[in-house]
Amino acid sequence: EAAEKGGYPHFMIKEIKEQPEAIRTTVAPRVRAGLPCLEECGITLEKLREFKSISVVACGTAMHAGLVGKYIIESIARVPVTVDIASEFRYRNPIVGEGDLVIIISQSGETADSLAAMRLAKQKGATTLAIVNAKGSSIAREADMLIYTLAGPEISVASTKAYITQLSVMYLFAFELALAKETVSEAECKRLVSALLKMPEAVKYVIETTEEKCKYVATKLITTDSLLYIGRGLDYALSMEGSLKLKEVSYIHSESYAAGELKHGTISLIEDGMPVISVATQSDLIAKTISNIVEVKSRGAMNILVCSEACARTLEDGIADYVIKVPQTDELLMPISAVVPLQILAYYTAVNKGNDPDKPRNLAKSVTVE
Ligand code: G6P
C-alpha cells in the first residue's frame, strides 16, 4: 500500500495532487477543432436540441457536482435543470418522461439509489446519460448515453479527483448543449473550451500556492465543534462540497448555507470564535457575500475566505481573518480551482485531529445497498 501511495502519507492528498492530470485526461480527448465533441459518448447536437428539461440525479459528492452543473447549464444553455438526491428521486414519482434528459453522476457506477433512479427514469421514458468513473459498472452499462470521467481509480473514501472530473464533464456537456440550443456562438464556445483546457495548469498552481496556507488555517479548526460554509450562486454550490468534505474526514459538524439565507435563522448559531468559511469568486455577487462576512464578523465569527484575486482586491483590511486566494480564471470555471483549497483544508484538519482521511469512520466508498 505504501508503494501505491507514491510517497504520500494518504491517498486523499495523493489524489488531490493528481487532479491536474485527471482533468487533462478527461477533457482533452473530448475536444475537436476547439469545440466539445461527445459523439463517442452517443451525444450529438441534433439529440441535444430535443431536450426541454434536465434532471440530475446522484448521491453525495456526485450530487454536488450536479449542483454546480445546474448553475452552468442554466446560465449558458438556458435549459431548466433540477438536481435530486437519488434516494429522494426514486420514491417521489418524479415528473420525467419522453423529451427529458436524466443525468446520473456516479464515481463507482454502483450506488444502489443512483442505479434504481436511473432505471426508474428509463422506465418512465426519459433518456439517460451517465457520467461515471468506474469502467463497465452497472450504471455505465445500462445508461442510454455515457461519458466516462477519466480520473483513474479513486481509493480515498472522500472523493476529490472524481469530483473535479465530474465538474469538467459538466462543463463540456453544458458547452455542447449551449451550442445545440444556440445560446452561445461558436466563437464563444471555443473561448470557453480553451479556458477549460487551461484549468489543469490553474489547479496545479492552486495546489502549489495554497497548500501551506490551508495547512496553517487547518490548525485553527481542530478545536471547533461546529462551523459554517457560505456562498452565493456557483460559490454556494461549491461550498456544499467543501462542507461535506470537511465533515466526512474531520468529524466536525458543518453546514453550508446560501449566504443570503443566513439571516433567516442560521446566523443565530454564530458565537465568538465560530469559524465561517466563505467562498467568493463571482464578481456580480462578491459585494453581497462580503456584506454577509461583515455581518458574521460583528457577531464574533472567525472568517476564513476562499476567493478569487478580483474579490481579494475589493476586500477591506481586517474583515477576513484568513484569506486563501485562487488565481482568476474565467468566472464560470472558478469552481474547478476554488474547490482545491477546500479539499486541502479538509484533509489537513483530519490529519491534525489524528483521523485517517482515507477511511473515515462509518463511511464506505461505494454504497451498494439502500
Ligand atoms: C458514498 C461515498 C461518497 C460518494 C457517494 C456517491 O457515500 O463515500 O464519496 O460521493 O457514495 O457515490 P458514487 O460512487 O455514486 O459517486
UniProtKB/TrEMBL annotation:
Identify the residues that the record assigns to the SIS domain, covering every copy. 44-183, 217-360
**Keyword tRNA processing carried by entry:** no
Q: Which GO-annotated molecular functions does the record name?
A: glutamine-fructose-6-phosphate transaminase (isomerizing) activity
Please state where this protein is localized: Cytoplasm
tRNA processing is among the record's keywords: no
Reaction(s) catalysed by this chain, per the record, are: D-fructose 6-phosphate + L-glutamine = D-glucosamine 6-phosphate + L-glutamate
Could you say which EC number(s) this protein's record lists?
Answer: 2.6.1.16
**Alphabetical UniProt keywords:** Aminotransferase, Cytoplasm, Glutamine amidotransferase, Repeat, Transferase
Broadest EC class assigned to this enzyme: transferase
Q: Indicate where this protein is primarily found.
A: cytoplasm
Q: Where is the active site?
A: K365 (for fru-6p isomerization activity)
Job description of the protein: Catalyzes the first step in hexosamine metabolism, converting fructose-6P into glucosamine-6P using glutamine as a nitrogen source.
Its subunit composition reads: Homodimer.
Spell out the protein name for this chain.
Glutamine--fructose-6-phosphate aminotransferase [isomerizing]
Q: What organism is recorded for this protein?
A: Ruminococcus intestinalis
Q: What is the lineage of its organism?
A: Bacteria, Bacillati, Bacillota, Clostridia, Eubacteriales
